[in-house]
Amino acid sequence: MISTDFAPNESLADAWLSFKLLFQPWRWQKGKEIEQAKKNLLKQFPNQFLISFFLTGRAALNTILKSLNLSEGSEVIVQAFTCEAVILPIFANQLKPVYVDIEKQTYSMNPIDLEKKITSKAKVLILQHSFGMMPIHRDRIFSLVKKHHLLLIEDIAHGYSKKLISNFKFQISNSLFLMSFGRSKALSSVFGGAIITNNQALINKLSNQEALLPLPSMFFIFRLLLYKPISLLIKSTYDLYIGKMLHKFVNWFNLLVPEITLKEKAGEYDQILNKAYPNALAILINQQLARFEQVQQNRARISAFYSNFQFPVSKLVSSHQQLISNLPLLRYPVLVNNRDLILKKAAKNNIFLGKWYDQVVAPKSLNLEKVGYKQGSCTVAEEVCKKIINLPTNISLREAKICVLSFLRSR
């Protein structure tokens, strides 16, 4: 089984650590590893950065927006081609998302459309680093943020290049990084999120909020710890049919905490996720951080392999292979004209390619009217969502070649 979506980060060492933690419940909620995880993560950023942890990335975003005390109806500027985790916290704080179209090279915000949509009600801008790519028009967007006195949230939940981050200095004092440690992200502790900034006033507010949050229940943590060993067992035995049966069994009995809750799928922010980050997950993220550079190097190598391959892609996409070559992408994006056929044929060979995002605000089941999106307002994003396929990057070169071969055979 090769999968872009399912447990892309999990190694045998991760699964074994999580399995052992199942028998150490005294370490689950509180412990020294939380502070150690903060120190380990901050080593990858420039000096004088501060950090707060939360149970999820959307809980982190919700806390940011709550701490700002913005008036009802204030606008938060986001890009189309995103997910519910970004949008639902906006509504939870009685704020209004304003959707900006994307450009075709790094799938990030188009500054021309952005400038058209900034109003006097705009207070926050969320700049998404899609697939771990630095937005190509980042500097131009920075200028608009400064001009209109917005709070800038750089969403690096999809990942980032350590080299770029280590050389980065905040150009705007009123800004921060938003991270996610979800199961499909570049760093995974199954759940988790963080806010990183060099703004002391901001971090003081966030730290106060962090301290007030309750910890998740022991049973909730138990279900999270099951994910890594079970998912690895499913992947390793999927081709033998055992994994397929185990996957059905796990879903049937609801053994694992879902990545998106039923309430979120219905378009409502789920307050159950407003929790503190437990020590058990900090132990898991510390191990991921220890091998992060190795994983990133592999992602960059596989991304370079894909970039050097001449895919017969849709005419919609501009030539951007050189732009994203050698970057440690979370997923490698390719635009095609017959996506459903390609995905279906690849799946017959137990190759499950991704389709982030197949709707301007994912998941596909989400009612776009409920999240304030007007059809036709971001045409590039809408077109990309119909054609995009994601190839996995945290795999071996042999597996990458299999993916490419399957891709070509499916056309």
What does this structure look like?
Belongs to the DegT/DnrJ/EryC1 family. Keywords: Pyridoxal phosphate. Pfam families: DegT_DnrJ_EryC1 (PF01041). One of its GO terms (biological process) is polysaccharide biosynthetic process. The structure is a single chain. With about 400 residues, the chain is of the alpha/beta class. It folds into two domains: about 25-210, 3-Layer(aba) Sandwich (Aspartate Aminotransferase, domain 2); about 290-405, Aspartate Aminotransferase, domain 1 (Alpha-Beta Complex). Helices cover about 45% and strands about 15% of the residues. The chain has helices at about 10-20, 35-40, 55-70, 85-90, 110-115, 140-145, 160-165, 200-210, 220-235, 240-250, 260-265, 280-290, 290-310, 320-325, 340-350, 380-385, 395-410; strands at about 1-5, 50-55, 75-80, 80-85, 95-100, 120-130, 150-155, 175-180, 195, 330-335, 350, 360, 390. β7, α7 and β8 (about 175-180) form a beta-alpha-beta unit. The model is unreliable at about 315-320 (pLDDT under 50).
